[in-house]
Write a structure and sequence with these properties.
There is one protein chain. The chain contains 12 helices and 16 strands. It is an alpha/beta fold and 337 residues long. The chain folds into 2 domains: 165 residues, Rossmann fold (3-Layer(aba) Sandwich), CATH 3.40.50; 160 residues, Dihydrodipicolinate Reductase, domain 2, CATH 3.30.360. The protein has an 8-stranded parallel sheet, sandwiched between helices. Helix 1 packs across helix 11 and helix 11 crosses helix 12. Bound molecules: nicotinamide-adenine-dinucleotide. Nicotinamide-adenine-dinucleotide binds next to helix 1 and strand 2.
Length: 337
């Protein structure tokens, strides 16, 4: 069993912990947090040994009546791999801790690409991460774009990608985020940083992205235009995507008109936390005009990177090849509708 440490137990960390627990070949050795709160209590309730990420603050857990197993250094001493799920920029600060303990580390998309040897998306470049010491799972948006670009590029060739990313202002728990009643070009400069991030996975893809932020918390929405090198009809593209388990083609008959109903559907089918690990592509939006493919996809920012983290664990520990890892991950947590 691969012994996994998780440093940072927030939106991403808690989901990765549960996904690791569901796998047949790995287990959560412990999770580390900086301070006691409801998520720390949940970690204890779920049976995850809780470690103090900052030794000076260990007393705060005792004062809150929460038992801790020790400082994070003790966890790193015995872990086979650490998943850093701390806020953007903190992972880079933590890197020396992981190097000192000689433990391979997986970082998240809030870090600069330079933090790691490899930026990772399982569908697109799993092999590059095999045996690496430091791997960065790309952001929710880059994950969503990569999963579509990979099959299109392999099958038809891509001349140019243009994507407008309508981004949620914050996650449901991020009560301090906004906008509340506005629509922001964000970043206002064009192209946005998302395209260069896609280039950490696909160095040769020509891509421009534009970003906006809106008063929503549930999901991002991508409006995508891909100019292809050959010209399939829309039904061929639908068939291509239907073979990809991490792409969910929303059937027209479901009458799902937006993120709200998508999340409702996820809850109705019993998904943990209402998570949607797949890109959610509106099937009837898939259109081809000349060489140009168009579609809309919803991206559940809190969860699409979760199966990618699980695959990154197998790649970095060299314990499975791509096909085996992706299938095991998807079977274990139930990816695909
Ligand atoms: P979060 O704020 O929900 O959780 C981060 C956790 O790390 C919190 O529990 C915080 O207390 C803890 N923490 C802070 N400093 C720490 C330290 N020094 N050591 C250990 N723990 C520490 O953040 P998140 O949304 O889970 O984001 C984590 C990473 O994942 C970021 O890089 C982010 O960009 C990326 N990401 C987030 C989303 C998303 O939509 N939430 C999607 C994809 C990627």
């Amino acid at each position: 069993m691969i012994q996994v440490a998780i440093n940072g137990y927030g939106t991403i960390g808690k989901r990765v912990a549960d996904a690791v627990t569901a796998q047949p070949d790995m287990e959560v050795l412990g999770v580390a947090k900086t301070r006691p709160n409801y998520e720390a209590q949940t970690a204890i309730d779920r049976g995850y040994p809780l470690y103090a990420a900052i030794a000076d603050r260990a007393d705060q857990f005792a004062e809150a009546g929460m038992d801790i197993a020790g400082p994070v250094e003790e966890l790193l001493e015995v872990a086979d791999v650490v998943v850093d799920a701390t806020p953007g920029g903190i992972g880079e600060q933590n890197k020396s801790l992981y190097v000192d303990h000689d433990v391979p580390a997986i970082y998240q998309g809030g870090e600069d690409a330079e933090v790691a040897d490899v930026s990772f998306n399982a569908r697109s470049n799993y092999e590059d991460a095999i045996g690496a010491e430091h791997v960065r799972v790309v952001s929710c948006n880059t994950t969503g774009l990569s999963r579509v670009i990979a099959p299109l590029s392999e099958t038809y060739g891509i001349e140019k990608v243009r994507a407008t990313l309508v981004r949620r202002g914050g996650d449901p728990g991020q009560t301090s985020r906004g906008p509340i009643n506005d629509i922001l070009p964000n970043p206002v400069t064009i192209p946005s940083h998302h395209g260069p991030d896609v280039n950490t996975i696909f160095p040769d893809i020509d891509i421009d992205t534009l970003g906006m932020k809106v008063p929503a918390t549930q999901m991002h929405m991508h409006s995508l235009n891909v100019t292809l090198e050959s010209t399939p009809d829309a039904s061929e593209v639908r068939d291509l995507f239907a073979d990809e388990r991490r792409l969910f083609l929303i059937p027209e008959s479901f009458d799902i008109d937006g993120s709200g109903k998508l999340k409702e559907y996820a809850h109705d089918v019993g998904r943990p936390r209402g998570d949607l690990w797949e890109n959610c592509i509106w099937e009837e939006s898939i259109s081809v005009e000349g060489d140009d493919l168009y579609l809309f996809q919803g991206i559940h920012q809190e969860s699409d990177v979760v199966p990618e983290n699980v695959d990154a664990i197998r790649a970095i520990t060299s314990t499975a090849d791509k096909a085996e890892s992706v299938q095991t991950t998807d079977d274990a947590i139930g990816v695909g509708f």
